[in-house]
Each structure stands twice: as structure tokens, then as C-alpha cells.
């Protein structure tokens, strides 16, 4: 039987539209915080004076660290950094938005000189999900939750970086146009400035609860999974402001439904085996530390998504 031209045309149109109509929604994850979310893990710089001969950078770590096996896929057979096309990233730095497939270099430095937690996190999410993934990173160095990121529910003046964070996320979502998406999770890696501000520590747990409540309302995602990364710089401590601050982080996270606190102290590496030995506030620039923080956040998010 010969098909009529109109039937053939209708069938052709349905085939053309099928990928659009039935495409899986993009799973969007918001990655926010201060400089350790921006990313301070050195990739390949190895100057003896400024970068400790490359010890602890990503290239060194891929061959010499405990995590070398986990990093095998970061480069291709030609020695080039792999770009993961099923995991997109958007990160506004100054007036410019960096966008593209996940790879090294989505930090405040430009180029491919550093990594942050987004690399390990994105790899875990890309492997775990059949949907395309978009990471919206929004982070600035030296910012507190007490003042800069202060959420509306905490009272007082709303932090200007809370407002900027929301604006950047909305702008990145608007760029998706008609593509379907779901705000699937929030990762928070922040705390150094609050830890250094005595009045901020007692308030931190409640401010964290308020931050999540307000963001869930902003993005109409009432059960949005949340991962909070511990301020694990320097490894374990048993007293002092760092100890008290970590307790506040964990206590706040426990008060949030569908949230998980990720301990990171095991990811600290010796300064003498790191690119920036004097930068304890930035994990001494150790790329393995940043990779593992991101991977742990991804594993935590997998648990919450189930």
C-alpha cells in the first residue's frame, strides 16, 4: 500500500520533533560559596619559588597522590584535558560568564590554571545521571554568611552577595531558553570569614537554615537536596574557633530536611607536598584536596537524590 504524501509528511515531522518533545530535563545544581568554591587547586604551574616545584598540583597528583587512580580519565590519549560535554558549567567571573563542557579551569583565574570542587562533583553527577547536567557556580572570595550572603529570613540587611547569587543563578537559567530543567540540588562550600568573626559563629547554624529556606523559596524547589561541605582546612582540630565553627556547620545542616553534611578533614594534605605551602586557608592550593571535596559532595548528592 502506498502512503499518502500527507501521512509521510506527518511522520517525518514527528520524527524531527521527537528528540525535542521527549528530551530529558537538565538537572541543574547550584554550587555556591567563597574562595574555596571559586577554586584554588593548582593545575600545572610548577615554579620552584612560587609553586613548590609543582608538588600537589593536579598533574603531580595524577601520578603521585593517593587518588591518582581516580584521576586517570582527566586527560585523553593525546595528553589533553578531557571536556565533558554531558556536564555543562556556567560561572560568572567579573562581567564575563564562562560557559561550556566540564573541564579544568572554571575558577576566578581564567584559563586552565586552577580547579575547584566543581570538577570532582561534575564527574560524579555526570556518571550518575542519564539527564544532561548543568552546574551553575556562583562564588566570591572573602565573603561571610553573617553579612555578605545574609539571607532575608535572618533579618537585618540582606547580604549583597545573596542577591548577586540569586541574580546569577536566574540569569544562567534564563540562558536555557525553552530547554526543560529542574533545580536538582545545592552545594555550599563556605565559612572561613564567619570562622574568623566571633559574633558570626553562634549565628551560623540558623543563618545556614535560613539560607536554604530562602533559596528553596526563590527557586520553587521546596525539597531541593543540599550538601554542606565542612571547612576542613588543615585537618582535624579539637578546640578553638575552627572546632566551634565546624560544629555550627554540622548543627545547622542537621536542622535542614534533605540535607547532608560532608566531612572534609581527611582531604587535607601536608603543606610541604602542596603548591602553596603558606595558604592554609586555601588548602595550600592542593589539587587533590579540591578534587576529593567535589567528589565527596557528589557522592553525598547521589545519596540525597535517591
Q: Can you give a write-up of this model?
A:
- The chain is α/β, with parallel strands linked by helices and 306 residues long.
- It has one domain (33-305): 3-Layer(aba) Sandwich (Rossmann fold).
- It is built from nine helices and nine strands.
- The strands form two sheets. Strands 4-3-6-1-7-8-9 form a seven-stranded mixed β-sheet, with helices on both faces. Strands 2-5 form a two-stranded antiparallel ribbon.
- Strand 3 and strand 4 form a beta hairpin.
- Helix 4 (118-128) runs parallel beside helix 9 (287-305) and helix 7 runs parallel beside helix 8 (240-254).
- Residues 1-21 have low confidence and may be disordered.
Summarize this entry quickly.
The protein is α/β, with parallel strands linked by helices and 306 residues long. The chain has nine helices and nine strands.
Keywords, separated by commas or semicolons:
single chain; 306 residues; Rossmann fold; seven-stranded mixed sheet; two-stranded antiparallel ribbon; 9 strands
Please, what is the average pLDDT? 94
- Going by CATH, the architecture would be 3-Layer(aba) Sandwich
Molecular shape: globular
In CATH terms, the superfamily is SGNH hydrolase
Q: Percent helix among the residues? A: 25-40%
Please tell me the total number of domains: 1
In the CATH scheme, what's the topology name? Rossmann fold
Counting helices, strands and paired strands, the structural category is alpha/beta
The tally of beta strands, per DSSP, is: 9
